[in-house]
Amino acid sequence: MSIHENLPLIRRRITDACSRAERKTDEITLLGVSKGHTPALINDASEAGLTLFGESKIQELVRKINLCPSHLQWDFIGHLQTNKCRDAALYSRLIHSVDSERLALSLNDACGKLSIIQPVLLQVNVSGESSKYGFAPDEVLEKISQLNDLERLEIHGFMTMPPWGQEPEQARHHFRHLREIRNRAEKRLGAPLPHLSMGMSYDFEIAIEEGATLIRLGTVLFGKRSLNPKFR
Ligand SMILES: *Cc1c(COP(=O)(O)O)cnc(C)c1O
After folding, report:
1. Cα(169) to centroid(ligand 1), Å
2. What is the tens place of the pLDDT at every residue in 180-224?
3. Which of 72, 78, 82, 146 has the fewest beta carbons closer than 10 A?
4. What is the pTM of this model?
């Protein structure tokens, strides 16, 4: 199915999930995860009306930006190495994946040198899997004030990835957990942390029911990724 045919169907599923949760559709931002897809496909998606894309590798992001319409916006969603902070800050609307204190400090430094303020989300490893990046739930609450004091980072909320390969319904308690972490962090800071980036192709409707404001959809929007990860 082409993205022109598919996008309205996905938007419809978002609207339906919002109705079930008694939320407004405009509370949800759809991020098209374009990693592994060609600039040609991104151009098609742009013509179909999608304007926000997500990439998980800096080299791939930098290469694609120049080959895509200049009005598009890009979020960074992958694990960021400290030596790539400058490019991430130069090109990303929002970095979803600040996953350690060390990375936060490096990114803050890079943004200082660029004289910019970077909107970010803190990635939380809600399931505690050792293979996943992210702050532990207790750790993020312990460090939230200190991270919020970093002058060049503007913390807008949290991101998580639940365990892979489960039934969608099994992700629900992980999404709920992230929302609870957010609520507790807001109390500690006495400031709003409005964004929850959670929900991918298989579980976005459940994420919306549990409070997601940003959903990151790849496969369900664009089909199978066509570029070999080795060459991205
Ligand atoms: C690849 C990726 C996605 C999209 O995954 P799909 O299952 O294709 O929707 C979302 N978030 C992150 C962080 C990713 O790396």
Report:
1. 17
2. 999 999 999 999 999 999 999 999 999 999 999 999 999 999 999
3. 146
4. 0.97
Atom of ligand 1 nearest to the CA of 96: 13
Closest approach atom of ligand 1 to CA 219: 8
Q: Where are the domains of the chain?
A: 3-222
* Banded pLDDT at 231 (limits 50, 70, 90): low
**Pocket around ligand 1: residues whose beta carbon is below 6 Å from it?**
33, 35, 56, 77-78, 161, 200-201, 216-220
Distance 223 CA to ligand 1 centre (A): 12
Gap from CA of 34 to ligand 1 centroid (Å): 9
- 112 C-alpha to center of ligand 1: Å? 30
Pick from 20, 23, 30, 79: which is nearest to 51 by CA? 30
Separation of alpha carbons 177 and 37, rounded Å? 32
Start-to-end Cα distance in the chain:
24
Question: What CATH number should be reported for the domain whose range is 3-222?
Answer: 3.20.20.10
